[in-house]
Amino acid sequence: MRRAGYTLIELLVVIVIGALLVGIAVPAFQAILTSSRESLAQNALQQAILSARDAAAANVGGGDTAAVFFFDADRGITVGIYEKIGAFSDDSDNDAGSALRDVFVPITSMEPVQLPPDYAVRGFVLGTQLRDEDWYEDLVDYSPGSGLQTGGNTGSDRGPGAWVFPETDFYNKLEQDDGADRQTFMVRFTAGTGTLSRDATSALILDPRPSNLDRPTLPAIQPLDQAEDLRTWAKRVLISTGLSDVERQQLLGNESGDTVLARPITDIALYRERRLGQMLQVRNLNRDTNSIYLKDEDPEVDSSLFRDSQLADDRVELETRITQWLEGRLALESQNDAGSALEAESSVYTVGSYFGELVEVVR
Q: Where are the domains positioned within the chain?
């Protein structure tokens, strides 16, 4: 006589086998997805830098070009392709009181490159550059060495430095003169040759704030929000004899909400912001920014996320911890320096001098 169904034991066996298969398949599938997103992030980063390099090589007789890094709370990390169109003397908090700064505008024919969600970048900045009172001024006292080369925690051939975040979205978008805290880094290429530029001049990156409020009304120049072409508008500001130095600085200087202060770097770290948060033992990422930062008018970390409130309040110690982690010198599960690059799940690249290729640094 045929059996009408399965016994309870047979059903339990089938369920257990199914659960085991799911338990094996899900992590493998997640690993494939993570690897795919990582490849997308790496390819996007390389695409942006090569685009800037190719634009420089083709720009014979023109200005240098740069891949400029931006953070936006809504979009995450983007990389824009920009071109130098001139320079002018800007007001400065450094001892000299002024600084000659290059002016870069977006190349409108080249779309910004978007990194996948949760992926972020940081640029390595030498300690000598961090002495700039106008640029990442909270890190003026930063001194720990980078461990990317021989020397470890006691310093290295690279010298003291830090991995900085593109702090471009922490300002009041409704005010014209609240741009002093907008700061980032860029990879700069020499016009005509496409080689990596060694020009360390700071640059003002034209990135208009999304508001028509508090726009200067000047007879010699139309408001930026009414300009049809950013390049033409910026050139007029630079050469206009009808503008005073103060007015020119108001429109294009470091204090302007329409510009971002940038310096060139050659080393880039690509990582997942959520993994960084795990290392810092935060409860979660900030919901508004999907990062450890507050959505505020100043670049500040969200101290409410941190279990260690002292770490959140000490910017220098925080950057030290991040630097050690990105370079694989800080274990995720302990407070010693026995960590590996694998634990950090980050990739550190240096930009090739001639062709702009990303060369991964073995840590």
A: 8-360
Q: What are phi and psi of 89, to 5 degrees?
A: -85, 120
Task: Quote the CA–CA distance of 34 and 128 in Å, as a whole number.
Answer: 37
Contact (Cβ atoms closer than 8 angstroms) between residue 102 and residue 139: no
Helix, strand, coil abundance in the chain, percent, nearest 5: 30, 25, 45
- Name the E strands within the chain: 65-72, 76-91, 98-106, 113-114, 119-126, 161-164, 183-189, 203-206, 259-264, 267-272, 347-351, 358-360
CB 159 within 8 A of CB 149: no
Residues 6 or more apart from 10 whose CB is under 8 A from it?
A: none
**Alpha-carbon span 183 to 170, nearest angstrom:** 9
> What is the model's pTM?
0.86
**pLDDT tens, residue by residue, 276-321:** 999 999 999 999 999 999 998 888 999 999 998 889 988 888 988 8
Q: Which amino acid is at 203?
A: A
Structure tokens at 349: 């690249």
End-to-end alpha carbon distance in the chain: 69
Contact status, residue 285 vs residue 273, Cβ threshold 8 Å: yes
Tokens of 189: 């290429």
Instruction: Estimate the crossing angle of helix 245-252 against helix 230-239, to 10 degrees.
Output: 160
